[in-house]
C-alpha cells in the first residue's frame, strides 16, 4: 500500500514538473550523454531533391553537438532546407527530417499545418500542445476549440483558413519556446508563409507576433493593429507585403474571459478587411 502511495506521489511530482508524456520505455541519462557529446558528431539530415549544389550546403558538414556553434550550424541548415523546399509537401518533408531542433527529440509528431493552403487567411500560433502533439494537427485541444468558435463568429472555418505554428514541435510540459528554438525554426515558418502566400496573416498570441514582426511590444499593445509582413518590406503599400494582425491567443482568453470583447473587435476588423478584398 505504502509502495503504491510512493509511486503515486512520484507520478504527481512528475506531472507538476511538466513531465506529462511517456516518450520511451527506458529512461535516458542525458547527463551521461552530454559528457561524451564533444567527441561525437551528428550529420545533418538528407536534403530534398530540390536542394542547391553541395558546395553551398552548411548541412553537409558534421556538427559538434555541444558547442554554441551547433546552434549556428542548425540555423544555417534550417535556412538551406527551407529555401530548397519548392512546395508545402517538400517543406513538410524537410521539417520531418530535421533532427537538429532539440524539441523534435521529445515530440511525438511534427505538427506541420492544417486547413486550406489556398485560403486568403493564414493563422500562426506558438507551438503544439499535448493534444496537438498526439494528433499531429495544430489547434485541436481546448484552445483550438475556442479558436474554431472565434473563426465561426466571422464566418470562417478550417476550409477557409490555413493554420500553423511558429514551432512544429511541442516544447516539453508546454513551456515557452526558448529564443534558440524559435530562431532555429524561423526559416521554416518564413518559407511556410511564402509558400501559402496568404492575403492576411493572423498572429495568434504574442510569440508569433513579436518574432515574425520583429517587435518587442506585448500582445496587449499589438493586438487589433495592422502591420506589414515581412517587417522589412516598405510597409503595407508594398505589393509583396501581407497585411498582418496579432490577436489574443485563445488560451489567454480562456484564462481572461473579460478580454473576449477586444478579441471580437479584432475579429470584426479581419472580417472587414477580407470583405474589402473580395
Ligand atoms: N497553442 C498554440 O499556439 N498552437 C497550437 O497548435 C495549440 C495550442
Structure description:
The chain has about 280 residues and is an alpha/beta fold. The protein has a single domain, classed as Uracil-DNA Glycosylase, subunit E (3-Layer(aba) Sandwich), CATH 3.40.470.10. The chain has twelve helices and eight strands. The strands form two sheets. A six-stranded mixed β-sheet has the order 3-5-4-6-8-7, sandwiched between helices. Strands 1-2 form a two-stranded antiparallel ribbon. It is globular. About 10% of the residues have low confidence. Bound molecules: uracil.
Mass-distribution shape: globular
Placed side by side, the strands forming the largest sheet appear as: 3-5-4-6-8-7
Bound ligands, each once = uracil
Number of helices in the DSSP assignment: 12
User: Could you give the count of β-strands?
Assistant: 8
Annotated CATH homologous superfamily: Uracil-DNA glycosylase-like domain
